[in-house]
Design a protein that fits this description.
By secondary structure, this protein is mostly helical. It has 21 helices and 6 strands.
């Protein structure tokens, strides 16, 4: 048994009168004695209604609590005692702080049960609630997408159904076995194309043209043409089947796919034009520049790698930390390059010809690379180099932890969302099984017992956003959440 401190003021009332207004409640097996005078500070709450009951009939009491013991004058509630310890603080401190480890969604349900307004929840705790609501919304979206893939929309016509089938086939490998095979084939084409791109630059594997210049081997060109053909067909099919063409074209990964195939066709056009126009001088330069753009195809691997997607998201969330890193490095490079140039001017064989030239030395020194092509020769210059080295290590190490933390948070969040989405689908299957059992065995007593066990097994990870319904009034005390 635990109690909260009683108020020091009595307003002229005797101890006997105060004792008559005390309220004894049992919250999930934990007995609490509360002062009615404090509970009346919020007359619309459930506890204040219990204190001010005109009559203690069973019907009136059962509407406010789960059970009542007339001998002990004790009210029983099948609720979470840990959440109640936080909620009861509103009567004494006019605000509520949610303890660490309590699911925010479950805590809000507890506040609604005790009829406490959400405005009394402290701002620091509202942030956790917003994060959990966003997480549940993401889970709901994932479940809706899965259900949409499994069930389909009967209102679609034949062409729309074909378009949707083609979209799932090209974009969602988890939707079917053929879609998974296409994803694997696409992944292999990306690897082959990247390997061929590297092998084509080896002089031993190149051949000479009529003018004696080294060019890529015809076999390498043929393999690259086949890979580009696959990428082109894949991009066109995905574009044709996409629900929103403009959104598809402007998506980052789709822009990468377009940049991976565009240089091949542009090189063909420029080559043909260059031959027809007597080998324009700038055509070959443009061809070489476009060939370099073929390295963009390696970024297509991000479409099939959740790890690369997580890394990209972590870097996007870490723009502030990366900006701080660049600022620290920029200031350090400017300061130490200027100092190095000034200190090395007295040496006759100085390698520091100007401050802009000294930028390169400051960059490779602060990043601990140290190529050795430029280095200080005076004592003061070497001391400056040592200090710049230490400052560079500190400047790089400071923002690393937030970036790693963002990566770990997002990766764990994705794992939780996937698990929660699967769990929600299992709950929906159990609910559909419950409905089927009730329909087929309505007159059988075993059906009622099976249905009650299913209702008891429902956890607080149930997402109201999917069904628009709420749970039963009495929920189990032991709550689970997917936090």
């Amino acid at each position: 048994m635990w109690t909260l401190p009683k108020p020091r003021y009595t307003n002229g009332r005797t101890p006997e009168e105060i004792e008559d207004t005390e309220l004894a409640v049992n919250i999930g097996g934990v007995r609490v004695v509360l002062c009615g005078e404090m509970l009346n500070r919020y007359p619309d709450s459930r506890l204040a209604e219990l204190v001010n009951l005109p009559t203690r009939s069973f019907d009136v009491i059962s509407a406010l609590c789960d059970d009542y013991d007339p001998a002990k004058k004790e009210f029983y509630f099948d609720r979470d005692p840990d959440s109640f310890k936080c909620i009861i603080e509103v009567y004494y401190f006019d605000e509520i702080h949610m303890k660490r480890g309590i699911c925010p969604i479950c805590f809000i349900k507890e506040m609604e049960f005790w009829k406490i307004d959400l405005s009394y929840l402290d701002e620091c705790c509202k942030g956790s609630l917003s994060e959990k609501e966003e997480e549940l919304a993401e889970i709901a979206d994932k479940v809706k997408l899965i259900l949409d893939d499994l069930e389909g929309d009967p209102e679609l016509n034949r062409s729309q159904r074909y378009q949707k089938f083609l979209w799932k086939l090209m974009e969602k490998p988890e939707s079917s076995f053929p879609a998974r095979v296409i994803a694997i084939v696409s992944f292999l084409f990306i690897l082959v194309s990247s390997v061929v791109l590297c092998l084509g630059t080896i002089p031993e594997l190149q051949v000479e043209d009529i003018e004696g210049n080294l060019i890529e081997h015809p076999t390498v060109d043929a393999i690259e043409a086949v890979c580009i053909g696959w990428f082109t067909i894949e991009y066109v099919l995905r574009f044709v089947s996409s629900p929103n063409k403009m959104r598809f074209a402007l998506a980052f990964m789709n822009v990468v796919d377009f940049l991976a195939i565009m240089p091949f066709y542009v090189v063909l056009v420029l080559t043909s034009l260059g031959t027809a126009m007597m080998e324009l001088a700038n055509v070959q330069q443009a061809v070489q520049a476009l060939r370099i753009m073929r390295i963009a195809r390696i970024f297509k691997l991000a479409r099939h790698s959740s790890g690369l997607q997580t890394l990209t998201y972590a870097l996007k969330r870490s723009f502030k930390e990366l900006g701080l890193l660049l600022m620290y490095m920029g200031v350090g490079i400017f300061v130490f390059s200027a100092l190095g140039y000034t200190m090395e001017q007295s040496h006759p064989e100085t390698l520091f010809r100007s401050i802009p030239q000294s930028f390169w030395w400051a960059i490779i020194t602060m990043t601990t690379v140290g190529y050795g092509d430029i280095y200080p020769k005076t004592t003061l210059g070497r001391c400056n180099a040592a200090i710049s080295f230490l400052c560079g290590v500190i400047a790089i190490a400071l923002p690393i932890h937030p970036i790693i933390n963002n990566f770990v948070i997002y990766y764990n969040k994705q794992k939780v969302l996937e698990t929660a989405a699967k769990h929600e689908l299992e709950l929906m299957e159990l609910q559909s099984l419950e409905v089927a059992m009730r329909r087929t065995q309505r007159l059988d007593g075993a059906a009622d017992e099976w249905g009650s066990s299913l209702r008891a097994s429902r956890s607080d990870t149930h997402i109201p956003l999917l069904t628009g319904t709420h749970r039963t009034q009495k929920e189990p005390v032991k709550k689970r959440c997917s936090s």
